[in-house]
Task: structure prediction
Amino acid sequence: MFTKLLVANRGEIALRIIRACQELGVRSVAVYSDADAQAPHVREADEAVRIGPAPSSESYLKGDVIIEVAKRVGAQAIHPGYGFLSEREWFARAVREAGLVWVGPPAEAIAAMGSKTAARTLAISAGVPVVPGTAQGLTDAGEARTIAAKYGYPVLLKAAAGGGGKGMRIVRSDAEMVGALDSARSEARKAFGDDAVYVEKYIEGPRHVEIQVLADAHGNCISLGERECSVQRRHQKMIEEAPSVAVTPELRRRMGDVAVAAAKAAGYVNAGTCEFLLDREGNFYFLEMNTRIQVEHPVTELVTGLDLVQWQIRIAAGEKLPFTESLVPRGWAIECRITSEDPANGFLPSTGRIEHLHLPTGPGVRWDGGIEAGSEVSLFYDPMLAKLIVHAATRDQAIARMHRALLELTIDGIETSREFHLRVMEHPDWQSGSISIQWLEQHLDEIANPTAPDEAIKAAAVAAALVAERDRGSRASGVNASSGVGTGSSAAATPAQATGADAWRRASRLEGLRS
Ligand code: ADP
Result:
């Protein structure tokens, strides 16, 4: 095992990796930008080194600086987390050439899966089903129309270098093609410096189901089952769960076999994920392989009992996987991404200082976060602050548990996605599992925008909390309300105080689950 590992990331994933290191007895080295000098990941690591100013292009994306730091402090390995440099082939190669160990797949496997068109070509050669479409970039709108005629509208234009839902356009007719191609190309050029765009058949109403694989350097490659990530906004995941209501044991085995075949074809080692679309008829199509740890890895950890980040490090250190059979999921896990966005305001990014933070605890609750009270949330980095994850015996129980945990959560000072997640948990479609990747967009208004009844419930909760507060005050002082520790006559209850009454009322919205 390594004695020292450098974590080339920030926020919740940096902390996650540092925790894995602590449990493995590996010393951790954090790197940080000026904006993160006070961040929890800097404090929790055994050592921390400043790498540059706040913009990530001058800090977390400075691969050469990071490798230099790793060598200077005597780290033997670099873990890139997700985002930033994690899927840059040149960086994985440079780490190896510097005599360090890359905690991730070989640079060659990153390259093989790096572009969507290259990955499609590889998948087809390995017998993996892909969404009907092309595997080459388009030359012009005329060619795009000819291809669309072959598959039938609607089609989806996708950036070959794509990621994060960028450079994607749905096209429903010949007339829309020119404009859609231009805008997909220009978005792709801006985001990836590469404007190659290809065509896929647009699948209506599918689910996003992905398979986690783990491969060691000794030829073992196993599937750890599926995660469903269908609750998406603008092709970006917001809620993930494991297992999926749409996957039977038989389908799990078939999808697992296909994912393992794709990984083997790419010469894959370490943790990776094959993403698929699952249509209403039970057909599945390979989308891409993410050659890194994913944001939503905790749901797989909870249903398999494995620590995926520790396994990434152990595999990189040359360990053999102790199991060769695919694992059966135990219970149900759900993850909500807690972001600094205001769902009631078109998901506008929210910035500022976190004044107060109260974290949910209790049975089956896990918080993977990168924030604390006093943290400054800026526009320099991704708005994802933390992940709230729960585990329970059944899906219904996991939803009730997530609802309860979200009610316990208080983040004051900035807007967050907490309320949005509560509304999803309360929605009958989500509760019955009748969702697809288009479901959220179709219900965004009712879920993201507070409506009158909810305001009434909030007001009732605050009133009830004030009454409780007054009762506590009079009991404590033995006199009357105004002499208690309370908030005085004009102030409202704090969110933490309102929670109890709020929870009691909102729990009634889970009625569908319990009947
Ligand atoms: P990115 O790498 O930009 O995230 P993906 O290929 O992983 O792009 O697709 C992201 C999301 O876009 C998927 O989860 C799905 O919701 C949607 N999507 C992608 N391809 C298709 C398709 N052919 N038909 C319908 N939806 C699609």
